[in-house]
Amino acid sequence: MDWNYFLELFLGGLTRGSIYALIALGYTMVYGIIELINFAHGEIYMIGAFTALIVATVLSMLGMNQFAILICAMVAAVVYSCAYGFTVEKLAYKPLRKAPRLSALISAIGMSLFLQNYVLLAQTSDFLPFPSLIPDFEFWEPYAHVISSQELVILMTSFVVMVLLTLLIKFTKIGKAMRATAQDKVMAALVGIDVNRVISVTFIVGSATAAIGGVLIASHIGQINFYIGFIAGIKAFVAAVLGGIGSIPGAVLGSFVLGWTESFFTGYISSDYEDVFAFMFLVFILIFRPAGILGRSETQKV
Q: What's the CA gap between 207 and 42, in Å, rounded?
């Protein structure tokens, strides 16, 4: 066995998984609190990437250096995506809080289609080139054949975001309010927690992580179009379900498992059926573990 090639595929899958995790965290956080799949979440990821493209194009024309452009584009993408996530929650989900779940599901799908077509009309249906915002580090050149400096930055950024998110949920006041709301919304409201505010903050935090993922992966791949949110959103949803929907550690683990599965299948078998194999793996896991890898089965009394 070529261990260098194996290591290359392993690190490539780790990079993929870290991007999926940034998007899957938004899915699982929203589901954990309101038990609703936000199918417009992938489009928030896409909007973040387009925002970064616009900002990066303008700043490069002004002659700013690469690292400053990356920071400014990232901040703009996060702010803009958070605004969209907040607005989507207020317009499409809050009015249906007490409605049947099917109504909320249709609303989520409708928002996804609306945002796709909104960006299609505002931009173009063609793939647009995305500048490489992540710099190449000279000190990393001897190791670039295994993992590039761009992939290293993606891994480090994703790791930092996941750690900060974990600290936010475990040790801050709003994080404790999120956990209380996820456990029982009625009791959380009775003890003085503003449930609507907590849900809005959850959408904002999830949108921020998705925007960071959008900027990183668009810079790495080098192109974007209006449809990238759908593909990435489906993959991240698969990762969240694979790990156990509603579980933050499960979303991260499921993302890495999916990333490694795709990477090794592409490297050793064929890239033509990469997505097919990923979904087959999901079906296989759910047959034997319906709640996901880290999910808990719930017993309901009739």
A: 9
Report the 3 state secondary structure along 159-211: HHHHHHHHHHHHHCHHHHHHHHHHHCHHHHHHCCCCHHHHHHHHHHHHHHHHH
Quote the Cα angle for 13-16-242, to 5°.
85
pTM of the model: 0.87
Instruction: Kindly list the domain boundaries of the chain, sorted by start residue.
Output: 13-230
Residues in the chain: 302
Alpha-carbon gap, residue 93 to 95, rounded angstroms: 6
Is residue 250 within 8 A of residue 244, CB to CB? The reply is yes
The full DSSP string for 19-51 is HHHHHHHHHHHHHHHH----TTHHHHHHHHHHH
Residues 246, 295: contact at Cβ < 8 Å?
yes
Give the other-Cβ count within 10 Å of 31's Cβ.
21
Taking the C-alpha atoms of 59, 62, 67 and 69 in order, what is their torsion angle to the nearest 10 degrees?
-10
Task: Per-residue pLDDT tens, the chain, 302 aa: give them.
Answer: 677 788 888 888 888 888 888 888 888 888 888 777 888 888 999 999 999 999 999 998 888 888 889 899 999 999 999 999 999 899 888 888 888 878 888 888 899 999 999 999 988 888 899 988 887 777 777 766 777 888 888 888 888 888 888 888 888 999 899 888 888 888 888 888 898 899 999 999 999 999 998 898 888 888 899 888 888 888 888 888 888 877 788 888 888 988 888 888 888 887 777 777 777 877 887 788 877 777 665 554 44
Residue spans of beta strands (DSSP E) within the chain: 128-129, 223-224
Which of 41, 28, 34 shows the shortest CA–CA distance to 182? Answer: 34
Cα separations in angstroms, 294 against 34, 158, 242, 254, 302 = 19, 21, 9, 9, 25
